[in-house]
Amino acid sequence: MAKTAPKRRARPEPSAPPASEGKRRTNPRGRAKEAPRAKEARPKSGAEHADLDRETFDQLETEVRNELLAAQLALVEKKPKAVLVLVNGLAGAGRGETVNLLGEWMDPRHVRTFAYGAPIEEENEHPFSFRFFRDLPRRGQVGFYFSSWYEELIAAASKGKKVDVSRVLGLEATLADNGVHLVKLFFDLDKKAQKKRFRELEGDKDTRWRVTSDDWEANRRHAEIHRGAMSVLRATSTPKAPWQIIDGARPRAASLECGRALTAAIRATLEPSRAAEGKGTTKSTPKLVLPAPLTKRRLAPATRIEDLAYGEVLDDDTYGKRLERAQRRLALLTRHKRFPKHGAAVVLEGMDAAGKGGAIRRITRALDARTYEVVPIAAPTEEERLYPYLWRFFRKLPRHGRFSIFDRSWYGRVLVERVEGFATPDEIARAYGEIVRFEDDVRAHGVAVVKVWLAIEKDEQLRRFKERQELLHKRFKITHEDFRNRERWDAYVGAANDMFERTSTHEAPWYVIPANDKRYTRVAVLEHLGDRLEALLSGDA
Fold first, then answer.
1. Which of 224, 345, 449, 501 could form a disulfide with 508 if both were Cys (CB 3.0 to 4.6 A apart)?
2. Which of 294, 329, 358 is nearest to 502 (CA)?
3. Tens digits of residue pLDDT in 297-316
4. 535: part of which helix (H) or strand (E)?
5. How close are the terminal C-alpha atoms of the chain, in Å?
6. What is the model's pTM?
7. Range of the domain at 97
């Protein structure tokens, strides 16, 4: 049986509307309204602003509060998804008061709340999505994002600027498909009610500080801001994440609307779990259906592994000279006057024993130890499994002026997780597009995404495995998993080729290197990294 939250102090009685307003229209059940898509929503008339009386509110509050708490406790126990509430709206519409009240109705230990303004210095050195991914609630938690990723869009639209919503729609699709249930609330308020709200706050010495010159400017520009907001809402209200418009002039009804909307969202996350509990059999695994390869406009063709020529070999003298030259070039590029405004995310993938570690060591010898991090990627931890797949990689992206060198990467979803069956066919099929959007976000912030696949032949891999078994200082590198993976060689080659066709973009292409000769491999990686950085710093990438 769900716990009952402690009684809350009742909201103050709202001012009564003038008698001339005529018959009141109330909505005691407080049902949330979805944002219109074809017709612009208009502020409500004065007659519609009549709020619930205190007695009615108190009666309904107990019911809504208990239902919300019961749903939250089930969410905490089952952890089917995270619930993320985006809280946007017009100044003075009561967003803070309503969310505070919802927090009182729930167990605060499982609630995370963040407010977003202009990015701070660290956030400015990361991609657009970084701070939103960083702060995500994990499965079983509820998160509130004040202003969220919509604040800048609405501000731009209100000034008549053309806005591109594709980035936020892509972000929301990635979240919705990876265990985050989105609830989007917009608190609306007409100009007259907003002005009245500001005057009430200014009239109390304890709340006077809450009204600023920016608020009064927003009231003066109310029509423009409202029109811009509605245009953004229409463009971003989707079946998976529709907007719900809350009447901020009716604070009591608004609280009930939001409480019911959040309860419904939590219950929606629990439905698949309940359905699964009632079934005695398990469905067969659906067949993997891959998305189409990238179009010619985006695709940067990468060599298929079976078409590689493995004859490249460097003698000691040539290797030493080219290695030194490539390392010197890389060191100079990192000291270029433009590099502090850029960075590099270097991805090394390939078959086991292909030489990723040796290539990484030759890269780091050319760098200042204070400017790079080597990120080895293994299976996700239990905590990481409670977040969307890309969450752990966002946390390791480089700031400006730095390198992150990934020894394996986010491509594990379409490689090892595909071959070993650790991800569902639906997750794998979605991952290609999610990864391309992720890399677009990284690259748009001035960070080069350098992706290298080290390819070796099967016989050469076996020779290296045996060498590792025989040499004491290399024995730690070999496990029974390495030999088991050889049995799936063809599956890994096929997965890699599919990956190239769906993620090798002109902006972040795959570079496939024949890696039978370690000396050639190390030089080729360094020279390619230098080429990509040079193009970035010259403005050609």
1. 449
2. 294
3. 788 887 899 999 999 999 99
4. helix 518-538
5. 59
6. 0.85
7. 53-275
